[in-house]
Amino acid sequence: MGNTTRTTHRRPAADIRAAIAAERRELAAMLDGLPAAQWDAPTLCGGWRVREVAAHMMMGFRYSIPRVAWELIRSRGNLHRMTDRCAHQDAAAHSTRELAALLADNADHPWRPPVGGIEAALGHDVIHGLDVTVALGLGRRVPEDRVRILLEGVSPRTLKFFGADLAGIELRADDLDWSFGTGTPLYGAAQDLLLVAYGRRLPAGHLRGEPGVHFLAAGA
Length: 220
Description:
The chain is globular, with a radius of gyration of 17 Å. It has helices at residues 13-32, 50-62, 65-74, 79-93, 96-105, 117-136, 144-151, 156-162, 190-197, and strands at residues 169-173, 179-181, 184-188, 207-208. It has a 4-stranded mixed beta sheet with strand order 2-1-3-4. 50% of the residues lie in helices and 7% in strands. It is of the alpha+beta class. A hairpin with a 5-residue loop joins strand 1 (169-173) and strand 2 (179-181).
């Protein structure tokens, strides 16, 4: 599976850290401005409301490595079960204002996932932010420089990790010069195609092309 426009240069770490900090501050402001009812609205993350997604985004700031290991043991080594349980318990333990403040206060926190490096930290924030804003129909556009950093990292490994089946499909952005894969074209904004590559299903109206039906959110 190839990418006809993929670049190979690595972005300076300082640029990515700045992008992460900016993304967190913008998402914190967005969350802080949500009406109370929207905190209980579903997101693109199955089984998680906005409050669970927000709580999950804070996990890297609040959990030490020993605590993560302990929580993983409690979940019998199942990472997805652990993150789901922790997201629900943390969402119940903190007010919405506290969750938004935690994200803003940790804009410069150096946390990154165990695999993927600093780019994965940016991906974690951008994708979970989109999980919320796309599901709520807020129309937020992630700045192009952040999207491009993540598009450059899309690979067969990305698809496998997030369970995205793109066999016979070419992702083709209609707002940036970017494509990935070979086969029947699936068109959409770059950030929407990024969500597809990260295993998400989207509301109706975000994707165009014959394969789009396979990537619709339930009830769309």
